[in-house]
Amino acid sequence: MRSITISKLYEDRHEDFQLEVLSDSLESKREITVSDINRPGLALAGFVENFLDERIQILGQTEVLYLKTLSAKGKRESIGRIFQFTLPCIIVAKGLEPPGELLELAREHTVPVLRTPLSTTPFIHELTAYLDVVFAPQTVVHGSLVDVYGVGLLFTGRSSVGKSECALDLVERGHRLVADDVVNVTRRHEKFLIGTSSEILRHRIEIRGLGIIDVKSIFGIRSVRLQKRVEVEVKLQDWSETEDCDRIGLEDRMTEILGVEIPIVIVPIIPGKNITVIAEVIALNHLVKAYGYHPAREFDEKLMQAIHRKRLQDRLVRDDWE
Amino acid sequence: MIERTITITSDPGIHLRAAAIFVKEAGRFRSTIWVMKDGIEVNGKSILGLVSLVAEKGSSITIKADGEDQDEALTSLSSLVENRFGE
Question: What are the boundaries of each domain within chain A?
Answer without folding.
Answer: 6-134, 138-291
